Amino acid sequence: MTDTTAVQVSILAQRYTLTCPAGKEANLRQAAENLDQILQDIKSSGRVMGLERMAVMAALNMSAELIDTQEQLINLETALEHLDKRVNDSLS
What we know:
Elements: E1 4-11, E2 14-21, H1 25-45, H2 51-91
Antiparallel strand pairs: 1-2
Helix pairs in contact: 1-2
């Protein structure tokens, strides 16, 4: 059984008490801060009205960022594989 910890976070000036696995509190706080910043940016743009629409826009933005990051990781892994092959070939 995994130990859980309660963490209080603030998103759009609303307090939430969430649970997470012990030792992951900093990650949860950082995730809440990131989400809060994205929502604040969307809210201040004035283009999106309503919390539900803002949440959808934030989720889409974060999902697109995740896809970009995954693509970058794949490119880095490919580059490392090529570099490893070149090093092994030169040592052979």
